[in-house]
Structure formats: C-alpha cells, structure tokens
Amino acid sequence: LEQTDEESKKRMNKRLKMALEHIRKYKVPVESTTLVKKGDVSDLVINYAQECGADLISIMTQQELAFKETLLVSNARHVVNHSPIPVLSIRPEKEYKETRFESAIFG
After folding, report:
1. Pairing of strands 57-60, 87-90
2. Distance between CA atoms of 29 and 7, rounded to whole angstroms?
3. How confident is the model over 22-72, as pLDDT tens digits?
C-alpha cells in the first residue's frame, strides 16, 4: 500500500476502535472485521455480509453533513435500499457525532 493508504488504514482502524468502544459501552456484544478492497462500497458491504452469513448489517448515518460526506450518505442509502439482509441505520448521538467518520463505513 502507498503511504496515504497506510495512513488512511490507521485512521479507519482508530475510528473503528472508537465505534466499537461506544457500542460496547451499552453492553452490546459486537464483532468487527476490517476488509480492504477496491470497488463500490455499498456493493462490497452487501456482498461481504452475504458471504459471511450476517443476519444484520448496521451502518452509521449522519443527519448534518458537509459536502464531502454526501458519498457516505449515498453508500448508506444504497445499502439500506438494496440489501436482502436487514439493515439497522444508526444516527450517532451528539457525543459520538463530534467524532469525524467522514470516510468510514461500518457494516
């Protein structure tokens, strides 16, 4: 991976760790897998969920978005509208929303 890819991977892993800590704070058992692939994010999420036999996809959405974050909403919307697996769309609490997740998809 190029240097920028490594930096992006580190940022994504940090954000994932924060998300997992937040979820576990509410005593919700959760597992996560980091998958690095190129392609359409929403299709990758749906296909991976089907491959691993997931019974639920949870995906974070945000109500107030900057222009560069519209891609995140577009991917989340596509997953919600096209997944044969049930999707739980989560809007973060204010406390959690202050953390920037502009380029991460949690599925």
Report:
1. parallel
2. 28
3. 888 988 888 887 777 888 889 999 999 999 999 999 887 765 445 445 555
